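Subject: for your reference before the review

Hello V.,

The reviewers asked for a structural picture of the protein, and I figured it would be easier to keep everything in one thread rather than splitting it across files. Below is the amino acid sequence we used in the manuscript, unchanged from the supplementary table.
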Amino acid sequence: MVKNARKGLGRGLSALLADDRPSAVVSVTDITGDNGASSGRRRLPIEFLERNMHQPRVHFDETALDELASSIKERGLLQPILVREIGPEKFQIVAGERRWRAAQRAGVHEVPVVVRELTDGEVLELAIIENIQRLDLTATEEARGYKRLIEEFKHTQEAVSEIVGKSRSHITNLLRLLTLPEKVQAMVDMGKISMGHARAIIGHDDALGIATRIASEGLSVRQTEALVSEGKDKQKRQPRPGGTASGKKMKDADTLALEKDLSAAVGMKVSIHHEGEAGSVSISYASLDELDELCSKLGVCGF
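And here is what came back from the structure prediction:
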């Protein structure tokens, strides 16, 4: 059943899930892809609906919600909310939580819905993809969505690219953001720094310190890139006879760049240590699940 659902997860997703923009009401057949025998369009009391606790979206813009609520007051909720029945008078929202929240603010008592029979896996996958295709996700929220599609649903980056209609390089670049410290990712989520800022400090030893400075001083992306470059130049100019104070030799720019590319490819932190023609590569994992994922990518059995 999951495979069949995936066929409609690409360009046809907007028709399946509906949209927040006012438009003509979509028919049951258009949305469900069937004749409505197993699911259909209806109106339900708004209190019958409940949010999906595994909803990937964390942040809802309050101003945008107020604007949507005003539109709903004036013209009603024209697009249905996709739900599945989970009990008597209980329906879980699969897609459309933003509309549901706005409808509550607008004082609406009933909302149009489309009820579909979906497995837990399909609900999660649809919710992730639906959120990714929205325009107001932060870069790190989008990256986490891609990571879940890859890890939980075993999609390749190429498959994810086809599903969401974005280039593979776009997906790869966003996944690299997840190698940043969690506090820096949180700053991206809160809008304190942009994706451009975050990309400039990927792999930097003091990424959090620079991110904090960006937020407090209002540095532009170009200023951030110059700051990072200046730090690298200083490191190159400082004499390092025999290595650093800790006894370790400084890594050159090519090695650091390769570490970034490998980290993006495996989705985990990769460190390269080499001496002359020999060396070693180490991969850090945060959990046994990540170790299993790495083993799977390398074609060996995990735990």
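For the response letter, the relevant points are probably these. The first helix runs from residue 2 to 6. The chain has four domains: 2-137, 140-179, 180-238, 255-303.

Happy to draft the paragraph if you're swamped.

O.
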